[in-house]
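Case study 2.
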Amino acid sequence: MAMLKNANCQAASFSLNILGWILSMICMGLAEWRVWYMESSSAPSRGLACIGMWRVCTYQHNSPHGRVIACHRYSYSDTYLPLDIRIAQNLLLAASLLGLLGKVLTVKGLLRVYAGHRQKNTICNLFCASGVLSIIAGAFIFTAVIWNHHSVLNEEGIRFPPSFHIPFRPDRQETGTTVPVAALAAFLMLLSGLLTISFQLHPNNQVYPEVSQV
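Prediction:
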């Protein structure tokens, strides 16, 4: 009965983990990690640039053809990318893979419990391993978020190719709308990982009253 109750708690934690993982995957494809305002630049550089981990998009509002949007994707062979973006790319990819592996382990553990298996140590190991992987994944996402915020605060520039029509450093820059979503994803991953481990360890830490011998 206690094991089944624990499995229900693990299922609730698994739902949080799924939500965090989905949000992290969405953030990987969005470009609004950094927003560059190029107000004093000459055309065609004048406008707005949204810089993500895998692409950059420029928005030119004063174009004779109306609002022009141009997006350029990155690849690992692009040498102009700064170190922080390169590391963040790897961190986000690793977080997505670790999160996926953690979910596989959680599903295996839940299936064993609901199927009535009594191999408690094996089930405990599956849940604990899943929790650790979720915590590591959340930490990776948080690291990418913090490093991105640090680059914005230091007003660091990026030497994009001339064909992108983006200056090395904008007039001003700020963190984009993707950052809070990524931070929420990291928080959910960390929270679910901690809950997964705590739910699993809790039954072993129960204190039973001592029965006095008469």
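The radius of gyration is 23 Å.
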